[in-house]
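Subject: Interface between my chains keeps coming out wrong

I've been trying for a while to get a sensible model of this assembly. When I model each chain on its own everything looks fine, but I need the whole thing in one frame so I can look at the contacts. Pasting all components below, labels as-is. Any help appreciated, I'm running out of ideas.
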Amino acid sequence: MTGKYRLSRRTFLALGTAALTAPMVMNRSAWAQGEAVKIGIILPTSGPLAVPGQASRRGIELGEKLLAEAAGRPLEFIYTDTESKAENGRLAAERLIQDGCSLLIGAWDSGTTISAAQVAEQQQVPLLVNIASAPQLTEQGYTQIFRNFTPATTLVYNAVARIKDLSELTGIQPKTAVLMHVNDTFGQGVAGGVNALWDRLGIDIDIVEEISYDLRARDLSVEVAKAKSANADLLMPVTRVNDAILIVREMVKQDFNPMGIIGPGSPGPYEKAFTDATGKFGDQYITCVPWYDPTNESTQSAISEFQGMFPGERFELNVGFSYEAIQIAADAISRAESGDPQAIRAALAGTNLTDHIMFGGPIEFDEKGQNPNIGGAMLQNQDSEPLVIGPKEIAVAEPIFPMTPFSDR
Amino acid sequence: MSELYLNVIAGGILNGIVYALIAIGLSIIFGVMRLVNFAHGEMVVIGMYAGYWGHELVGLSPLASMPIVAIVMFGVGYLLQKSVVNSFADRPQHVQFILFISFALVITGLHVMLFGPDPRGIFSLASFETYTVAGLRLDATRVQAAGGALALIVLLLVFLQLSTIGRQIRAAADNRIGAQVVGIPIAHVFAVTAGIGMACAGAAGSLVAPLFDTNPFLAAEFTLLAFIVVIVGGLGSLVGALVGGVLIGVVEGLAALMLSPSMKSMFSYALLVVVLLARPAGLFGASGATK
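Reply #2:
Try treating it as a single job with all components included. I did that and got this:
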């Protein structure tokens, strides 16, 4: 190392420190100059999860239009597509942080969110989870993760509690049920949760059969035939959207008419792809999920704006939670008065939003970064629209139970 | 309970006939040219997209699209064989392998570029229809797909038995050098065979479009399924492919019913292992020729 441009240890250390602190300094100076605060959005907008990923993106875009002003500074949104591959969460988070993002929002599915969370934690940039239910996200001692969505345990708890309410709402007590679930991490987690909570919550319905099926199954005729042969009062499917369609199609073909179909906390039946594909046969399907409060004025104005921006699309939970993520982000940035990721993190920890659209208590985060106040609603498809039938305080329709046989529709 | 089993077996047979048509294209190309078409699943997916777009754009039922798709794919297969694959016929197997893998990658890439990665399903009220025959409830779309597949398989068997080019194909399959010696135009026969293989793949794709949502990445599953069916039935045997397909369809259905639905695909592999141990050439694979 002789020569005019020798790199000494001190110079190396100085350059290294400068490189590491540059993004922080740049963020602060950006705020001082009134420049945009960059927010990185990580979503699966292509691949198998594209349908909910694109719905989430619509929610972000709606929030960008209606709520971003509340930040008090311009916000710049940088979108990345994970192509529905969990490993891309990490790459997306790294790229967005490198691009100067002060806050990340995402990533819809648990696997991708976990891989993005590791980078966020390492780089000390907060990650606001719009949707992802893996309990470990807020149970691993991460300091940068804030989740405004129910962990699987709460999701199932709320769903089972709503199923318990069903007999009160309808005055009819089903006696037996078949639990049918997809065998991926989500499906097995929910099925395990249902079994664990069933007795604890004193549900007086006997689960007589449990049927698991492959996520990649292209034909569920045998599975539905097996469920039919159990002759139970309720079918409780834990699905994604495509398998929910296959199940209903097979039920119609096999003339399988239980007293009701109730999804205990799974996606699918409330999605437009489902109601479009099943039409009248998808009606009366009940599902228990976190949902927006349809009686709230803020919700009604958000839905009205959404319909103008995205004609023909449905405002559902993916849209709602993603929209709320922007509300939370704008509020935190406004209170942080800085584009510094750690100032935003501190502001996120102090969040307390009482007027928001998703059903539940105020948005706030506990010491683990979890919002503990998210409620669960019971929806039923009626005339191809998912309507809230419980709990009573936000219900907009009466439950139809027992369901009408398929041949009479 | 017996009604449940009979319904599952009937559904398995219908699925199996469609599996057979998916596999026959692979089988005939191998039987005649000794080429293993690793792009077979991709060709099935081309047929699926054709069936899907035929339905979406002009309202054609997949059964009606099937002959059009088969004719177009025959032409593409014929030209591809004449222009590219014939010059690889005598190359080492690893070179042929690379050629077909490159076809597969190009086709999948084109599908992603043209149609995107998202699944596309054909949904209509017809998807909910059933036929009731002797107490059995049969899925209408599956009956139509199996009926179309069976008709095409029978037509192909008759063609191979009775037509001049069919006899030339069988002669080339039995003894290529002998066929050349007696003046059979081998390059033309190979091109027709490739055309038939692609036509079968495309027709099968069109027929299964209402059963499975179409996406570019389904191809690997179809290639694997076709391999299992032709190995069980016997490489190069059309009857073997039909029997292999039906066996796999029924075994999958019964395994799902009697054990666990999530274990059903395991049983097609178990059947493959049993057949390979008991009859390494497959159930109908005596000489590998097209029977």
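Reply #3:
Confirming on my end. The CA atoms of residues 23 and 98 of chain A lie 8 Å apart.
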